[in-house]
Amino acid sequence: MNAITIIGSGMAGITLAREFRKLDPSTPLRIITADDGGFYAKPMLSNAFALRKSPAQLVTQTATQLAEQYQLEIMTHTRVLHIDSARKIIQTDAGEVTYSKCVLATGAQAIRLNIAGDGAQEIMAINHLDDYRQFRLRIEQLTKVKTQIHIAIIGAGLIGCEFADDLARAGFHIDLIDPNQAPLAALLAPRAATELHDALQRAGVTFHAGCTTTSVTRTSAGHASRLQISLSNGKLINADLVLSAVGLRPDLHLAHTLTPTALQTDRGICINVYGETSAQDIYALGDNAQYARADGVHQLLPYIAPIMAAAKAIAHNLQGAPRPIQFTPTPIIVKTPSYPVATLAPPPGITGNWEYTFTTQGDSTQLCARFFDLQNHIQGFTLAPHQASSRAALLAEMSD
Ligand SMILES: Cc1cc2nc3c(=O)[nH]c(=O)nc-3n(C[C@H](O)[C@H](O)[C@H](O)COP(=O)(O)OP(=O)(O)OC[C@H]3O[C@@H](n4cnc5c(N)ncnc54)[C@H](O)[C@@H]3O)c2cc1C
């Protein structure tokens, strides 16, 4: 059957299937996925303790329920090995299928740093529900033998900070390691990054600024085996578990091996404003895609809002009614309850200055930082604590 075939059942694959079914209830639609195809909101992984959710409770729809609701064929636990775009054949580890149009929604992979030491293999990274299941299992095992669990997190970006806060508030002792002087330095106004640092510290996080991890070695303390982390500033940290949160790299495997001609890639799979790749009838969206901006520059946008925008447009394009992807500036809501902050970082390479205002209401003071470029246009902001009304006002200010 020449079905429209989506590879991947993450937010990108499933959202596209939903959007397509809103427009077209009957054209055959298939999802092929390497995992079990259950739907979960990935952002919830980094605040599952706060939400009191187990990994199983994060799944809101199973593959069978999705297949029934959206009239899909879902091939679960099936890995796509190769695509032949001339013959429109997808080769999987469970055999071949043909497609009419194909969408790559294969996401990204956690970056693995080259860290020395016999404990480096034990470093965990979380980019999928299965990774999180393993992580929670390890924590469960540790809680059976220890009262105080010590977790070191490498990388204080969005995911590292969210996990640090969630785990510290759940009672674990956290060390957070980053080459920058403050957490989330790339996304927040500097003053807000300092306040986030202080809030994380109050929650029980020890921040190791301006350093990298050079090695992770196994040690043993009493009966329990532990890991010792050496930092570039000469410091040593002991931990029961090490989590790496140093970023993601788009999965380009299928793009590179596609025949007769590999897809055009840069850091991600290059797509145009319609979500089309360089091969006919092959589209891409989500963490593996590098989106074309209006000015022709391609950029990675590994967030939910761009997936929603791309899924809406690609659903129309699959139907033969072309519609460009329309991105709207969307702030990132950082899920750190110790310091709830929303931020829209200025575009890379823009020169300018942060300007701050503080509003006090009762006991709390709200920080509002606006980033102005040299022409005095607002290009980004940070708001803490964030409120939907103030966020909307800032977005309106930006669009003026
Ligand atoms: C902990 C965490 C917190 C986050 N929080 C936020 C947030 O607060 N806000 C926000 O906007 N974004 C957040 N993000 C980012 C956001 O979740 C991602 O951008 C989004 O989920 C990516 O979805 P995706 O479908 O592109 O990729 P994935 O979810 O990685 O899905 C990829 C799919 O492809 C399948 N696959 C891969 N290769 C193959 C193959 N060869 N054959 C078959 N199937 C294959 C996989 O099995 C999987 O189903 C967070 C990310 C993480 C990890």
How many β-strand stretches? Answer: 27
Whole-number tally of structural domains: 3
Instruction: Enumerate how many helices there are, as a single number.
Output: 9
Question: Can you tell me the CATH topology of the largest domain?
Answer: FAD/NAD(P)-binding domain
**What is the gyration radius calculated from CA atoms?**
22 Å
- CATH architecture grouping of the largest domain: 3-Layer(bba) Sandwich
N→C terminal distance: 50 Å
So, the CATH homologous superfamily of the largest domain?
FAD/NAD(P)-binding domain
Query: What's the CATH class of the largest domain, please?
Result: Alpha Beta
Q: Per the principal axes of the C-alpha atoms, what is the gross shape?
A: globular
User: What level of helicity do the residues show?
Assistant: 25-40%
Into which percentage range does the β-strand content fall? 25-35%
pLDDT averaged over residues: 95
The main β sheet shows up as: 7 strands, mixed
Helix/strand-derived category reads alpha/beta
| Ligands bound to this protein structure | flavin-adenine dinucleotide
Low-confidence stretches: none
Question: What does it look like?
Answer:
- The protein is built from 9 helices and 27 strands.
- It is of the alpha/beta class and 400 residues long.
- The protein folds into 3 domains: 177 residues, FAD/NAD(P)-binding domain, CATH 3.50.50; 135 residues, FAD/NAD(P)-binding domain (3-Layer(bba) Sandwich); 54 residues, no CATH class.
- Strands 1, 2, 5, 6, 7, 8 and 20 form a 7-stranded mixed β-sheet that branches. The protein has a 5-stranded parallel β-sheet with strand order 10-17-11-12-13. It has a 5-stranded antiparallel β-sheet with strand order 23-24-27-26-25, sandwiched between helices.
- Helix 1 packs across helix 8.
- The mean pLDDT is 95.
- The site of flavin-adenine dinucleotide has 33 residues, from helix 1 and helix 8.
